[in-house]
Amino acid sequence: MVVLIGRRSINLEEYTCVSARTKHSRLIIKTRTGPTQLHFSALRVSVALARTILSINPRRIELAFQSMSSILSLQTLVGNTKKLALVDDINLKFRDFSLTTRVGELAQAISYLFAQDILGKPIIVDFEGYLRSQGHYIKVDKQSSPDFVLCDSLKAKQIDLLESKGSTVNQVKNGLKSTLRVALEQCDSGKSILAASPIGSAVKNSFGTVVLFPEESVTSWDACVHFSDPEIETDVTVKDPLALIKYHFASWFMLIGLTEEAVGLASGENLQMMQPIEEKIVDDKKYYILNKSHGLFPNIINDDFFAKIGSEKKKYGIASEVFELLSTGDFQSIKDHLLIYNPISNDDMELFSDGTIILY
User: Fold this and answer.
1) Mean pLDDT, range 219-235, rounded to an integer
2) For residue 45, what are the CA distances in angstroms to 52, 164, 277?
3) Which whole number is the average pLDDT over 260-284?
């Protein structure tokens, strides 16, 4: 059953890019007209956490086990308070390296949902994964490159970069400005890596996020995604946008146990799968329910860990037009060449903005 963190929300606060990048100046909050909070369920953030790890290379089955380990660690990482917070004295319960890793993974998962639900960027892959998907993999220094490549439009071939930082601090905004500046600088480094590679990708936007988590006993401030992005956009060209799309969805197929399909998509092949018979209509859009495979490794989000008491087993699916795109490589199946769906999180389903869906 879902006992990780229940349903939670986290505050959002944006800062001007100039104030974030300029040394010896204070951060200036940017007036926003959009949402002030990001809402998510335990299952939703667990899926996001798994996909951030799997998108490194969806062909590596061992990353599925790493994902399971990271999901289960949330049990001991996140507190039971109504507001999102980490357990008290967390530094005494984890070794320094392990704590940094686990908090960083949770921050990446939340940044993943932030990119999808707030920024409207449903396609998200690891930065190294993007290089791999474009046929030019090089090992990059994680400390000097961004976490993710983001995409929403096939027609414009646009990509963005995002670097996520996470921390639990005793005082709100402790070291926030310098951490945010470093995140944006890592995006700059990512731009240089792409510009110098045969891919030749230019970047439209880059985003830095710093997710700060209080401990349970802290009442003076709440968990928050602090972020900044450039205010000047540049033109962009992606060498092979379809390969990027396939690579993104490969993590979904690996997540639900369809390993052969995941490996094929991550290798740039079309989806080799019969059209599913079972369908679900949500807001006038059709979703295919996918059959989980009987692979040699456990389903990361199987019902032994995440079933609701007394409920039917979960079903996992994908938007029919995305299924057709992955099967045929024909962009015409996607209206306006956009891959964006209205996210839904309730007692019946988890619908993600890339068209993947879980039915309770």
Assistant:
1) 80
2) 11, 15, 29
3) 93
